Amino acid sequence: MNSQHNPEKGYLFIVSGPSGVGKTVLCNAIVEKFAPHVVYSISTTSRAPRGGETDGQEYNFCSAKDFEGAISRDEFAEWAFVHGNYYGTPRLFLTENLCAGRHVILNIDVQGAMKIRAEYPEAVMIFILPPTFEELESRIRKRNMDSENSLQHRLENARQELSYREHYKHAIVNDDLEDAKKELIRIFAGYIDPEANTSQL
């Protein structure tokens, strides 16, 4: 357990890993397993919704002007400008839920994770790894419809992200999805309910 953690507050879990490693599926499994005690942190973005996305579910959508106003008011625990759009983690959402005793799961890239950890040093850091880099490349190629240059850029980003593994307390190799889910559930249960019989999870 984390000795810095205030027992009256919820835990903040940060989940990171390169694109294509299965973070979203694993995080969704955690929310489904532990709801309503675990909530998903929803990022705010200035980009337009994509097909099927709903405001307040995948993202909180806003204009670039509104996002910049929120930056000036220091409303984000972290934010970044990526491919022409802003993305950020609202500080108020984290504070309100953690203070209410709810646990928050944050699926975020390594740069954002380092910023969050600086502000929330008690955060539980979990890194999701591919079984091999070759397998990760295969997954990215299967899901990516962009050019070869774009794909190579994604792979280089993946290499850089994998170098951050040492900054995370826990690591899970997503070789078999069901096994990875079970391992992640056990990690969460160890913090949320240390008395749980995790063999039954």
Describe the secondary structure blueprint for this structure:
Layout: E1 12-16, H1 23-34, E2 38-40, E3 44-45, E4 60-61, H2 64-72, E5 76-82, E6 85-90, H3 91-99, E7 103-107, H4 110-119, E8 124-129, H5 133-143, H6 148-162, E9 170-173, H7 177-192
Parallel strand pairs: 1-7, 1-8, 2-7, 3-4, 8-9
Antiparallel strand pairs: 3-6, 5-6
Helix pairs in contact: 1-7, 5-6
Task: Give a summary of the structure in a few sentences.
With 201 residues, this protein is an alpha/beta fold. It has helices spanning 23-34, 64-72, 91-99, 110-119, 133-143, 148-162, 177-192; strands at 12-16, 38-40, 44-45, 60-61, 76-82, 85-90, 103-107, 124-129, 170-173. Strands 2-7-1-8-9 form a 5-stranded parallel sheet, with helices on both faces. A 4-stranded mixed sheet has the order 4-3-6-5, with helices on both faces.
Notes on the protein architecture:
41% of the residues lie in helices and 20% in strands. It has 7 helices and 9 strands. The chain has helices at 23-34, 64-72, 91-99, 110-119, 133-143, 148-162, 177-192; strands at residues 12-16, 38-40, 44-45, 60-61, 76-82, 85-90, 103-107, 124-129, 170-173. It is globular, with a radius of gyration of 17 Å. 29% of the residues are buried.
